[in-house]
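Troubleshooting: if your tokenizer reports a length mismatch, compare against these two reference records.
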Amino acid sequence: MQPTLMYQLAIVVALGLLVGLQRERVEKTVAGIRTFAIIGMLGVFAGVVGATVGDWVIAAGLLSLAALTVMANVLGDRAGQRDPGMTTEVAILVMYSIGVALNRGYMIEGIVAAGVLALLLHWKAPLHDFAERIGQDEFAALMRLVLIGLIVLPALPNRTFGPYEVLNPFEVWLMVVLIVGISMGGYVAFRLLGPRTGAIAAGLLGGMISSTATTVSYARRSASAPERSSAAALVIVLASAVVFVRVLVEVAVVAPGVLAVTAGPLGAMLALMALIAGALYVFGIGSHELEVEDQKPPSELKSAVVFGLLYAVVLVAVAFAEDRLGQRGLYGVAALSGLTDLDAITLSTANLMQAGQLELTTGWRMILVGGLSNIVFKGGVVLLLGSRALRGRITLAFGAALLGGAAIMALWPG
């Protein structure tokens, strides 16, 4: 049902007041709190008239508004009051377009666009600060992500072929883009927070970027600084807990239809890991303040290609195991794949579950087996590289996690 004209005007005036209030509070501009509301109304009425006489009215309104904005800037420049930027001018045109969109039935989209516009205007300082803090390596990583996601992905064929008809180049590379994007988000958070932070933030960020790399790094650090073993243990366990957050996010993105089945047992494992991390925090001895280990941008092309190949191999291996080896073979593939990388077995299993090629109860157990295998691998890293104090803490923590995970697999219904 199309909202009434009065309802459209009420919404656009409220949105215009919001955006205009932000502009007027920050700086002298060509448009303030009243002007943005009026501009939104102009957009609505342009949509109304355009529906009757033709959409050229909308274009004419946009051009007229641009001309008025230029004139206001020229007059302000002569009076020495002109803002050298063009943010407000562009915001004016966007507000007009939002008014037109609301009139044409894009109510939710228009409201969201106005909210995003207000936030972008308000976040001027932190966004500029973030841009200044991005170095050459970070910018190069961003461009590699653009290459991976916006250039390579659309060029790949979207069809299945190969053994068991489970290999789709487009879908395989889409999983690469997803994993690189998640890790890139963790890296951006790391850059925003800076290197000096607490063990909790270090563990959360490490899990988002790479829990295995985080484990290796802090195990080595504890060997040279045993007094930091308590904080290092907390970081490693937290990073391992965040892995299960990543798993749930990945399932929700690639296979939302099976999330209801997998969320319970995997969420229980996440809760167990969080409980163990909480115990380490409460009963740990020593400072939890430390510097986060420096991280490299996670969009290296070589790593992306390697993950894509690993994901493809896991897909074929799971299909082969299901066809030839039975359930034990499936769990064996999950355990081997999960040793160093849980993402590949999670994504492959979730896709097969979504397609109906794998039983749901078997699928979530495979993911959990991969997660437990990953915990075993990181425990081995700590035993090999960590200090004596860290080895003791991680043995207790990961031992409890493995027992709890085994109990979930055995006792969870279904």
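Reference record two:
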Amino acid sequence: MSSLRPEGRPVCGLIWISFVLAGLTILADSGCSRSDSNAAGAQNPTSLPVKIQVAALRPIEVTTEYVATLKSRDSAVVMPQVEGIITQIYVHSGDHVSVDTPLLQIDPSKQQATVKSQEDTHGAKLAELQWDRQQYDRISKLYAAGVVSKQDLDQAQSALDNARAQLSALDAQVNEQRVQLHYYRVTAGASGMVGDIPVRVGDRVTTSTMLTTVDKPGNLEAYICVPVERSAQLKMNMPVQLVDAEEHVMAESRVSFISPQVDTATQTVLMKAAISNHKEKLRTAQFIRARIVWDSRPVPVIPVLAVSRIGGQYFAFVAEDQGGKTLAHQKPLKVGEMVGNDYVVLEGLKPGDKIIVSGTQFLIDGMPVAPQG
């Protein structure tokens, strides 16, 4: 038994050593194959599948939006020409009136007394004129008979001329006071709809008090203030569009006036555009979005999702064929206004460029890609 144990141990050891050597060989082979595959992968990197879109020209209107104020071209602000107390209001807000329709009455008592006094004075001067005329006729006959001197005749003539001059001046004063009396009844200077009436019976008004407005619906004018930096681009007859909150065009017009001066407070230039309001959807003094169309030309566009912004600069990846491979190259862009879901590209793209529109977050410049569509 003791002689068998020494002989069995070497046999087991040899078997164990053989298993260890076989395992090391397998590990070495697997390590070499992995290294070879990594090296092959480094030499032939896998291309990233991406979707592309070919850049094409699209007719785009280059526009800028501003806030416009609508003003009526046929709106009259009613203000009194005299001072006094309002005694009666003949109309209500919303009434339609024609020319010379009475709107309000200002107390005319004081002016009526002034006119009465002037008329009485006029009557007295008229009586004096008649007396001076009779006196002149009498002295003329006496002078012809040689009873009075030439000096007496001249004095009578001077008195008559003076009376005529005074009466003529008084006639003008009486007419002026009578015209002034008409101003105490305020009438409509134009036909249209009566606006808000902020005054009430018993209020004292002056010549600077606004009594109401009379508007004729239909003709409006858009007042648009454009920054002075863009004033050089303003031209007569440029298209102007009024749009609502849902981007629907409510009215279209063209520039009809460009101010030659700059507003010193806002550093803007005023421009106007006549607006037809035949459907009466717009209102006087309304704020509304006004879109100025600077130009209309075919320009390349790019989807917003394909554009990235780094440090204030816009970039996009473009697929380019080089040496039989398709590589992604990052290009800087200069973009303009957004039109729908696209940017207008001012610089950096040309028609025919293959824009990468998917997977851009995984791309680096020069990386191979596999365009999918």
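Descriptive notes for reference record two:
- Residues 1-44 have pLDDT under 50 and may be disordered.
- The CA atoms of residues 4 and 357 lie 79 Å apart.
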